[in-house]
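[#protein-structures] MJ: dropping Oxygen-dependent protoporphyrinogen oxidase here for a structure pass
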Amino acid sequence: MTDLDVAVIGGGIAGLAAAHELTRAGREVRVFEAADHVGGRMATRRVSGFVVDSGAEQISTHGYPHTWELLRRLGLDTVPKIGRQLGVWRGGRVRRGLAHPLGLVTGAGLSVRARADFLRASRANGVDTERPEASPLGTATVAEFAAPCHRDVLEYLCQPVVSGFFGWQPERSAAAPFLGLLGAIGPSTAWRAYDGGMDVLARALAARLDVTTSFPVREVVTGQGSARVSGDGTEFRARSVVLAVPAPVARQVHVNAPAYERPFLDACTFTPMVKVHVMLDHRPESPVYVIAVPRSESPSVSVVLFDHLKHPDRAPDGRGLVTVIASPAMAPALLDLPDDEVVRVLADEAGRFVPGLRTGVTGSVVHRFRHGLPEATPRALALRGEFESRIGGVVDYAGDWVTLIPYSEAAVRSGRRAAARVLALNPSYTGTRRQLR
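AK: finished. structure tokens for Oxygen-dependent protoporphyrinogen oxidase:
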């Protein structure tokens, strides 16, 4: 006898999407989340009137069909445009037009030849975001993709983008997922940010589900027709389990994962992300809302983001909120440092790009994600297709790492597909959930 029909482990957007689909289909589902809140890497904190997005910063009208379907279903599909440009720091100033049509004219820090080289190379290598390993690029790294191009393509476009937004190092990470994501999300003119924080969708889904927070799952053991789940001093059995946690966590928790799953789970590494949110008593202006900082310009900072320019509700009237994201080279060293030391390292360096940043500080928030984003190494990419083609048993998986495309749409999509596999496994199940023992 089982205690639960379906246990979803992980209350991020992938797990919540899976649970939502299963609940709509009439299944009895409980979500278990280790943190004291839902959202995962789409969580938001509210501090002293500031709305602090700890993970994902925006969505797009392009490349997010599963997300927009959920938003429409929940009546949340009025999402305002950001309406601001992105820029690259080069030679002591911001060059506008990154990810914007204007960049084809201004260059966004790139020479004419570099722009032409990138357009030619990317057009010749179409990528399916659901099967990035099938791209003509194969398992080439970002650095290898950019090697035939003008050197600016790597140093002032590819590297700042993959390092700043994914936490990747271009010499380690595959080009196909990077180019697939760029093509999917479209220009920054289509980018939007939720009113009230980037966790709006996660909170709306959770409000309709049975969610238990502050419940870290320690072990999942697959059995015949069910799985044993243990954690927080409790043990129970579930007919199906969806592990909607980062691949390294899934590998550790699922102690008897099938042999054919283990190579990809082992290869699917994650990069850490460290962010400092600086709350100010004034509202800095900027020609862009995001500054991507190349590694040649800073050893420790990869992105500076003006949250109050991204969306006016992120800071109270007359006040500012600036987010500083550590570079991939610096993030590992910051993971275990005290908050005040992390703030000092990143905010001091960011003062080069935001004059007076350290003046008028009223508070700060530090966010650390040990498992920030799936790294999409060539080895993981080579193993991905075989892994996805075979998952779908008593224990299933969901997360953006399943396709190695690091954005929330991939997480939503994988959650919904995991739900479809669970439904196919037991298509005629009807039952009543028993109380946990």
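MJ: nice. The CA atoms of residues 392 and 424 lie 9 Å apart.
AK: one more thing. Residues 432-437 have pLDDT under 50 and may be disordered.
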